[in-house]
# Entry
Amino acid sequence: MERIKQALERARREHSQGGAAPLSQGAGAKPARIPNISYTQTQVCEINAKQLDEHRVITAQSRADVVAGYKVLRTQVLQRMATQGWNTLGITSAACGQGKTLTAINLAISLARDEQRTVLLGDLDMYRPKVHEYFDYSPTFGIGDYFESEIPLEQILFNPGIDRLVILPGRGPIPHSSEILASLKMVRLVREMKTRYASRFVIFDLPPVLSGDDVLAFASQIDAFLIVIEDRGTEKEELTQAVDLLKGSTVLGTVLNKSDEMVRAYYY
# Structure
């Protein structure tokens, strides 16, 4: 627990030193329609709709109730974030295996289908980066290479064949991940990602809260959290502990996953 407190204090201190850049003027307002984007530097991977369906990633062929569930989640998130002019959201869970990564991916896709915004999905689960696996994509570089080998972001980002969506993947486990997440270089990276385009919404797939101190080390850099809970899988004590650890951060609410109702959000 003491290590978690130290990481949280370090994150707040370095975030303050880095300077909190304001959002672009009008970032909370709904921008004009964005046409399809032609990616010249970002790697574009070909997607296989059948494989995406097997991974439960939403596509044009997905069940209508599943797509509708994520649309409702999208609208609820946007309405609550827009009132504060926010555009960065962390997706986490109490423990492993509760569906946070898939929820982050499908919410990002649903947001990108709104033709008035672009979306960046960052895989910051540095213990187990898996976002790229859902798209059957093997990245040459991951976010660890940005920090450890100075690889430029444009060589890391990829577009999964979905308009207005780019992904910052991981490539393998990264040691000392909480120190990276709380570093001044990460503060600057997040600031760049969230302010570069007024239309951009940024989602981070984060590790489970109870798996270490990574989420707490990163918490001061984003606007809000959603906590994914697994129907009949998440223990009440786990959720209570996770919410308690995130006190001081904005938790929009919880997303019920793997239920008969598919996806449902509960807000505090």
The longest strand covers residues 251-259. The radius of gyration is 17 Å. Strands lie at 43-44, 88-93, 118-123, 158-159, 165-168, 200-205, 224-230, 251-259, 262-267. The chain has one domain: 2-18+38-267.
